[in-house]
Amino acid sequence: CVAVDVQAACHEATVSQELLKEGFHRDLLVKVELGVAGQDVGGCAVAARIHLPPGVFVDPYELASLQQHNVTQAVLIPDVIDVEAPEYLATDILVLLYLEPDPECSHCFRAALPVHGRYHRPAEDVEEAVVVLKSPEVLVCCCDNHLSAECWKPAQVEVPCSGRTNSPCQWYSVRHKPVHEESILKIPVGLRQHSSFVCAVTLLITVLCCSLILTAACKYGHW
């Protein structure tokens, strides 16, 4: 592993995040540039520590499938998440997203994390709820042990350096500047004045479906 110019990383590291797709099911694309042009950072593991508010969540079953296929590597805290809970009954989630080297940039890293919007309470006069995603924290684990105390601070993160191994690792928090301080996710919500109509239609459809099921059971069932 080649030592990284940590002073340069301290001053020039940047992080950006972008929400892809539309609606409730999005991809959060995170990009990190360590700002060490001319240096080899191939020996470093880079991760983004992302704080997700109650309005969004990561599906642990979907993430497990992606990790099995080596598409996305991440650690969820807590690892048990109620994917059916509405926003007002949910809690914050902390995600450690492992970033992969960007083939187009020798000192750049990136990864995409699938996130899903939760249902919000019906509103009086707005059709969208706003969820703010703050810029993630950048964490780095390198084989160079002579890190600048002014730039890289030890981080209390008890996870391996890689999502594919269980070996222990000392992570360091990198001072960086976000391209944007936060990202905005807009989630459709219902209107309170529509609640009676929605309940009536739901009840009607439920009764109709139950009737069809009972009719089929009586006609084709074996008693």
From TrEMBL:
Entry membrane topology: Single-pass membrane protein
Q: Is this entry keyworded Methyltransferase?
A: no
Q: Which UniProt keywords are given for this protein, alphabetically ordered? A: Endoplasmic reticulum, Glycoprotein, GPI-anchor biosynthesis, Membrane, Transmembrane, Transmembrane helix
* Pathway(s) served: Glycolipid biosynthesis; glycosylphosphatidylinositol-anchor biosynthesis
Subcellular location, record wording = Endoplasmic reticulum membrane
* UniProt signal peptide: none
| TM annotation in the entry | 195-218
Swiss-Prot/TrEMBL GO biological process terms? GPI anchor biosynthetic process
Listed GO CC annotations: endoplasmic reticulum membrane
Note the SMART domains from the entry.
PIG-X
Specify the superkingdom. Eukaryota
Q: What does this protein do?
A: Stabilizing subunit of the glycosylphosphatidylinositol-mannosyltransferase I complex which catalyzes the transfer of the first mannose, via an alpha-1,4 bond from a dolichol-phosphate-mannose (Dol-P-Man) to the glucosaminyl acyl phosphatidylinositol (GlcN-(acyl)PI) intermediate to generate alpha-D-Man-(1->4)-alpha-D-GlcN-(1->6)-(1-radyl,2-acyl-sn-glycero-3-phospho)-2-acyl-inositol and participates in the sixth step of the glycosylphosphatidylinositol-anchor biosynthesis. Probably acts by stabilizing the mannosyltransferase PIGM.
Record's family? Belongs to the PIGX family.
Instruction: Give the protein name, as stated in the record.
Output: Phosphatidylinositol-glycan biosynthesis class X protein
Gene name of this polypeptide = Pigx
